[in-house]
Amino acid sequence: MGDIKQPRLNDGYDGPLQPHLNGGYDGPLQPHLNGGYDGPQPPHLNGGYDGPQQPHLNRGYDGPPQPHLNRGYYGPPQPHLNGGYYGPPIPPPPPKPKRRYKTPGCCCFSCIGSCIGSCLRCCGCCILSLIWNILIAVAVILGITALILWLIFRPNAVKFYVADANLNRFSLDSSNNSNLHYDLDLNFTIRNPNQRLGIYYDVVQVSGYYGDQRFGSVEIAPFYQGHKNTTVVVTKMEGQNLVVLGDGARADLKEDDLTGVYRIDVRLVMSVRFKFWIIKSWKVKPKIRCDDLKIPLGSSNSTSGFKFQTMQCNFDFR
């Protein structure tokens, strides 16, 4: 019993070291001892460790990079790392294109705050476009209206006839070969064949021509002609007038003096309006031509019983 040391002794002991002893121990180191240990490093120690790196250690690590480390990293870049990156450059993302919105409607509304000249040019284009559209719309409306009226009324041309003509005098003055004396009676027949249209004859002027030279005229009092109606108009032209006749016209006049039948032209110029129920149209100015009327001289004995033949006149709106 004299060679065995008691556990309570701390020095002069060569047996197995007791766990509670901290000095003079050369056996395997206990985990709770921090000094004089050369064995494998426990995982919870941070200094003096050359084994495989633990994920929670940040110092003295040369193994494969861990994703959560931000310093000392040379591998492929991670998207969430901001510093310590030496890989190929990453271009910045392209900027998003700016969308331009055009103001609807007329560009005049976009002129506020811009140059006055540009605003005037813009508004001028809008005004011209508006006027053009209005003209097109008016033309289309008028065309459709005219077509509807034509389909409803089915207008027929008014017919003019010279029903009778009598020449009482037609001769040049013996003292003045340019002064023509005339006395002409004309009876016109005007036929309105339309069933729904009445006609207002506001102005009617009858003129007589010989050799393309007007020798006299007379106006007829205004009148109204109802639908499906025939009106007889009696006129008389009488007087004298200076008429400059060419050589051809003088030769024709001498020939007519011999036969007692004179070739006279009659023209009517008028202003008329059409009426449908209570609707009245605007004024139109047709021209009526009654050419080459062969009118006998009433006092002549050389006519051999020639009588005037009823002749239809030409109706023209031009």
TrEMBL record:
It holds the Pfam family LEA_2. GO terms for biological process: defense response to other organism. Residues 188-290 form the Late embryogenesis abundant protein LEA-2 subgroup domain. GO terms for cellular component: membrane. The chain crosses the membrane at residues 130-153. It is found in: Membrane. Residues 1-62 are annotated as: Disordered. Its main location: membrane. It is a single-pass membrane protein. Keywords: Membrane, Transmembrane, Transmembrane helix. This is (rape) hypothetical protein. It comes from Brassica napus.
